[in-house]
Design a protein that fits this description.
This protein is of the alpha/beta class. The chain contains 14 helices and 16 strands.
Length: 449
């Protein structure tokens, strides 16, 4: 009988999302009327105001803004770069500054280039071969890995730590191959860190498109003496105040048990952040709306959180977890959508065996919707700080094959999100939240004790 009730409720959820969904319209406004939402920017502020207003319109029990200080970095005027074969003989190349990078000198930076496949190559080459040069990190994402996030994880260290490590050997700048599985002309930005490098020793860092990387590598193979020039005017400002946007439905039976679902409201500035992570935000908002529209009364408190500053600091997630700890809130489950608005395949879970066993017992309910992926693994960056005390963490796992074509690039735009795929993802998240709310999580032995 219970399974039949669950089948009926899931059918209601999917029908409502696919025939009367709001996620696509919300994303349209967020992407096309507001645009890229870099932390500390005016657009990020507008996104906070817009999403709060939409949550207010849903008739929730509570909607509020949670203040958080975030980094503020600006790109400046469009970057410019070229390969110089000989004086006056140049070829323009597509690049973009990495988030958090310092600027080049006002007249730009020109130098010889040394190509490496990763951070480990620096030590082998040593200061003698690196000093005064621009280090070109050219390790591509591993194409034969089906899980593209695994391929991303295998080479993102060169983007994040490349400048800090190259500076130790006297490099004057770094160029990093974009984290992208296809060959195109879009450079992909992303966060980078100087670690404990003194401000006076920090060197500019930029991403080069995959086509540009292939060309630069080919040219270097023929002539090691070519030069690379790039100019960028990015700047770091003092931290700025922003907000997490939060809405909730109070639980009817266990109001102190909190189920959180969320995505990150900030995005990079090159596109409009539709896949990363406007999609996750509107899907999380839609979870609350779908539960209300289908007439379901949650036993536990269901909370949607639109986190600020996932991209270059994780400040919003850190603040949310800090406040939750201060208030001794009991988060039993936290689900994140931050892998794009593509067709949902299922979920990955960070939990113990008892909870995973319960969750996998629900697989037959999801099979009619072609949701087959239930695996242990990671959850998401923004829900990660909630880990501990038996909290079950999860991440929505859409099909990832096209995600890195758009990730952190100028083509992460609204027209690349399919309405039906987005709505299926929102419904899939809502279905899992419904089941977790109805049946609860399995208390861990540590919590029981």
């Amino acid at each position: 009988m219970a399974q039949n009730e669950d089948e009926v409720q899931l059918k209601k959820i999917y029908t409502q999302s696919l025939t009367n969904g709001k996620s696509y319209a919300w994303l349209d406004y967020l992407s096309n009327q507001i645009g890229g939402r870099l932390s500390g920017s005016f657009n990020a502020e507008r996104a906070v105001e817009y999403t709060k207003a939409q949550l207010d319109s849903l008739g929730l029990d509570r909607v509020w803004l949670q203040p958080v200080m975030v980094p503020k970095w600006t790109r400046g005027i469009k970057e410019f770069a070229y390969i110089e074969y000989s004086p006056g003989d140049t070829n323009n190349i597509d690049i973009c500054a990495l988030g958090g990078s310092v600027a080049t000198p006002s007249g730009g930076l020109k130098g010889n280039v040394i190509e490496v496949q990763g951070l480990e190559d620096l030590e082998k080459l040593g200061e003698e071969k690196i000093k005064g040069k621009i280090v070109f990190y050219n390790r591509p994402m591993q194409a034969d890995l089906i899980q593209t996030f695994e391929a991303y994880g295998g080479c993102v260290d060169q983007r994040y730590s490349g400048a800090a490590e190259a500076a130790k050997y006297g490099a004057v700048g770094v160029i990093v191959r974009s984290m992208n599985l296809r060959l195109d002309d879009y450079p992909h930005t992303g966060s980078m860190s100087y670690g404990d490098t003194p401000a006076s020793k920090r060197i500019p860092a930029a991403a080069i498109s995959t086509n540009g990387a292939e060309l630069l590598s080919s040219v270097l193979a023929l002539n090691k003496d070519i030069k690379f020039y790039f100019r960028q005017t990015c700047k770091v400002f003092p931290d700025a105040q922003s907000f997490n946007v939060i809405g909730e439905i109070k639980g009817s039976t266990y109001p102190n048990e909190i189920i959180t679902v969320g995505g990150h409201l900030d995005s990079w500035d090159l596109g409009d952040g539709s896949h990363d992570d406007g999609a996750g935000c509107v899907q999380s908002m839609e979870v609350l709306r779908l539960l209300k529209e289908t007439g379901y009364k949650p036993k536990r408190t269901i909370r949607a959180v639109l986190f600020m500053n996932e991209e270059n600091g994780l400040r919003g997630a850190t603040k949310y977890a800090e406040v939750a700890k201060e208030k001794e809130e009991n988060h039993v489950f936290a689900l994140e959508s931050d892998a794009g608005g593509f067709t949902p395949r299922g979920f990955s879970f960070d939990c113990d065996d008892a909870n995973f066993k319960q969750i996998t017992s629900w697989e037959p309910l999801f099979k009619p919707y072609l949701i087959h992926y239930f695996e242990k693994g990671g959850s998401g960056a923004d829900v990660g700080p909630l880990k501990g005390n038996g909290t079950v963490l999860a991440g929505l796992r859409p099909d990832s094959q096209r995600y890195f074509d758009h990730h952190h690039a100028a083509n992460d735009t609204f027209e690349h999100v399919n309405k039906r795929e987005l709505e299926l993802g929102a419904a899939t998240m809502t279905a899992l939240v419904y089941l977790i709310d109805k049946y609860g999580t399995v208390p861990s032995e540590k919590v029981k004790g």
